[in-house]
Amino acid sequence: MRGQWRRTKCAAAAVGSALALTATLGTGSSAAQPGRAAAAAQEAAFNNGTGQAIAESIRVDPVSGGLSFGVGIGQALAGHQNTVGAADSRALNFGVIGVSLAGEGCDGGDPTLPADEQPQPVIARTGDEGAEEGYSAGESFAGGQIEKFARATADPFAEAITTGTPFEIPGVLTVAGSRSVAHSGVVNGDTREAIAATEISGISFAGGQIRLGGFRSEAIHRSGAVDEVSGTFSIGSASIAGVPLPVENPLATLAQLNGALLPLGFEIQAPTFSEATTSTGTIAVVSPLSIAIVPSALRDGLIGPIVGGLQPAREALFDALLEADCGNSTYITILDIALNAISAGGRLGLEFGGVQATTGSITRFDFGTRPPGAQGPSTGVTPASGARTPTGTGSSS
Length: 397
Prior knowledge:
Mean pLDDT is 73; it is low at 8-43, 298-311 and 366-397. Strands 1, 2, 8, 9, 10, 11, 12, 13, 14, 15, 16, 17, 18 and 24 form a 14-stranded mixed sheet that branches. Strands 3, 4, 5, 6, 7, 19, 20, 21, 22 and 23 form a ten-stranded antiparallel sheet that branches. The chain has five helices and 24 strands. By secondary structure, it is α+β, with helices and mostly antiparallel strands. Helices cover 18% and strands 44% of the residues. The chain has helices at 37-44, 95-102, 250-261, 297-324, 329-342; strands spanning 3-8, 21-24, 50-64, 67-68, 71-81, 84-93, 122-125, 135-141, 144-153, 157-164, 167-169, 173-175, 178-187, 191-205, 210-224, 228-234, 237-240, 243-244, 266-269, 273-278, 281-286, 289-293, 347-360, 382-383.
């Protein structure tokens, strides 16, 4: 059974799960008054409005000294405003680390890794040549390939799909394939729709002794003829030492997995749904499934002596690297962040499936916003043979 949260203006159903949250919005009425009929009719008129959907497959988030250095893997972003849609598919987003790598060298020379040499997104915008059919490109990662796809039509409708490759931290963690999908636009001519979804085929720990499979999270936001805000997550399978666990209640399943993971220094935090209110409307947010590598006596007992024993050699090695090229300081900093995150007092977070979606009408002129990725398609991408519709994330027609 999937964890599900939903709000509609037509009806609401109670769900017998600790994860379910249901509310109903009323549709109050008032007697007609002189001078208000025209205003009411204008307010009821449908406009394309705006929308945005964001999905991220995986985020690796080392925390050192209280600071976060998150790297996103497999991102999909889509948005629309008035008659324009834009979609952005990203294989890797280095965040703060990427900014540091792209900065001027310590000696005033070239950056360690210029921004234009870092992984580039595939971007499509309504009106760009080939955007209706879409653009696609691949990105090498961890010995595999991440596929990026983006398209944008005149409906307007924008869609991004990012399909990830499996990767592994040997003996510790294995992540099977992933897929993030985001779309935003107008469907059926009368409904604004934004949907973000992430699917992770499987996650396993300790050489496969602890497994979690078929994870999926989704955020939906519709307005216009249909008014709906919902968020869901589900687990397809789980096991400990080969023994299957029931998955009908995702919270209970994750609690059982935590019992086996905590002694190893891992902790799972379940996704939650929130409907945040902003100045322009609401946003449906399903937080990621978070797996934190936290301090534990077993892990610290194993890693502490290793890190401590490396300290004298570390200092000599780093001094030699800096003397050879001061530009190596960036790599040294990244290594320090990684070591500090897994040592006592540090924290390394792994997040799966953070999604959010929002839509709304436009009731006034707004010249200050534009859909994401409005600069047009990135260079070097190949037009796809045809547009693709995401599976299980709602209709795009």
